[in-house]
Write a structure and sequence with these properties.
The protein has 14 helices and 14 strands. A hairpin with a 5-residue loop joins strand 11 and strand 12. Helix 1 crosses helix 7, helix 8 packs across helix 9 and helix 10 runs antiparallel to helix 11.
């Protein structure tokens, strides 16, 4: 379930499991003699399929597989389950966690206007702590002593998953075969063929490494690592390329109640259905393509191509409505907390108490975020065109050039200006003689 993008050009020898007497760099890392039954986060892809067989052979351990549905498009979970059982798993649990993901993870991100590095709306980062939490639950239920995942040593997912396991289940151990075996893509394919592991299309040499869920999709690999290379068209498998999008714009009305998106174009929908519907509209109009340079917490800069149509629509609508309903002081202060919330999630610190502390304030602000925002979508762009809220901190009379009316008299302005600028004027005179 946690196959993570890796360099397909790596060609290294297979490393055996570390000697049991070697130095343990973390208390939760399992040594071979400690492993009896493993809960494997299983996606059905090459990495985790090789892991399923490899763990049985190298650790002489039983394996229980867990596959989590977070809204990955086009996935056949019965096929995934059958493949795990075919490879020797005692069982393969398939969990539909879309509702929990939307309500407990994506919704707080919407209310915190969350993106990382001005472009990444955290879809993978939001999914990993939920996947790891479910891994803990099913490991305990299945009598497992160890959890295995498919993360590499280069990415953030290892932090998100192992940090969650260590926080929620300190009695469980962790193994990360991809991080330790150092097999390249060719070696994995050779291992799969040797051990009768089905390989998609006979080679499984997909052009890009993909991660996706309800909230977005990322692509890595091939030319993406070359910063001078403009995106090739074939990378866009979710969002229509903007130049091929409809020639007529479409206006979408997004309605919120207390910060929760509840309707599109006046039609009330459940949260999962609304996110899916927003994504479909955005995909059609080429909305949500992000070519992003990202600072990973392990110290690397990486380039990712993101396709995030639902996030592009819902985050923009929420941010605009929140600004309409907030005071100038709230609108200046909350983005600082939003950035900190996004960083904690990105950095794998979902269980950090500061996250929930920030969310307490975020929820308080969102109690007033009710109304409808109209967005015009056209060939990759999303633009706010209409705003409506019973809680708008807005006076239509003051917003015009009318002679009078509203909440204060314009005749009072000169006195305000004199007092407001007093210290600045005094300081200017002192500095400039």
């Amino acid at each position: 379930m946690t196959d993570e993008p890796r360099d397909p050009r790596t060609h290294t020898e297979v490393h055996r499991v570390a000697d049991p007497d070697s130095t343990r760099v973390a208390t939760y890392l399992a040594q071979p003699g400690e492993v009896g039954r493993v809960l494997l986060l299983y996606s059905g892809g090459l990495d985790t399929s090789v892991m399923l067989k490899w763990i049985q052979d190298e650790y002489e351990a039983e394996v229980v597989a867990l596959t989590v549905n977070l809204g990955q498009p086009g996935e056949d979970y019965e096929v995934v389950r059958g493949k795990a059982l075919q490879l020797g798993a005692l069982d393969c649990h398939v969990v539909d966690a879309r509702e929990e993901f939307a309500r407990e993870y994506v919704l707080p991100a919407i209310q915190a206007n969350a993106d990382y590095g001005d472009g990444y709306p955290l879809f993978t980062a939001l999914g990993r702590p939920l996947i790891a939490k479910l891994a803990v639950e099913y490991a305990r239920r299945s009598g497992c002593d160890t959890i295995a995942h498919g993360c590499t040593g280069k990415g953030n997912d290892q932090v998100r998953i192992e940090g969650t396991v260590a926080a929620l289940a300190p009695e469980l151990k962790v193994i990360a075969p991809v991080r330790s075996w150092a097999m390249g893509r060719d070696e994995e394919i050779a291992y799969a063929r040797k051990h009768g592991i089905p390989v998609k299309g006979g080679t499984e040499t997909a052009p890009y490494s993909i991660d996706d869920n309800l909230w977005g999709r990322s692509s890595e690999g091939r030319w993406i690592e070359d910063l001078s290379h403009a995106p090739d068209d074939d990378v866009f498998q979710l969002v229509t390329r903007p130049e091929l999008a409809p020639d007529e714009p479409e206006v979408v009305d997004v309605s919120f109640e207390a910060g929760v998106p509840v309707a599109l174009n006046g039609e009330r929908l459940g949260l999962v259905e609304l996110i899916e519907a927003a994504a479909e509209i955005g995909m059609r109009h080429g909305v949500g393509i992000v070519d992003h340079i990202e600072d990973r917490i392990v110290g690397l800069k990486v380039r990712d191509i993101y396709e995030v149509p639902a996030a592009a629509i819902l985050l923009k609508a929420h941010r605009e409505l929140e600004r309409l309903c907030g005071t100038i002081h709230q609108n200046q202060f909350k983005p600082e907390l939003d950035r900190k919330w996004a960083y904690l999630v990105y950095a794998g610190l979902w269980w950090e108490p500061l996250r929930t502390d920030i969310e307490a304030y975020v929820r308080q602000v969102n109690e007033r975020v009710t109304g409808t925002i109209g967005l015009k979508l056209f060939k990759g762009s999303v633009r706010v065109v209409t705003r409506e809220s019973p809680n708008a901190v807005y006076d239509a009379q003051l917003a015009t050039f009318a002679e009078s009316g509203g909440l204060f008299s314009q005749q009072a302005s000169p006195g305000f200006i004199e007092i407001w600028s007093l210290q600045s004027r005094m300081a200017h005179r002192l500095r400039n003689g």
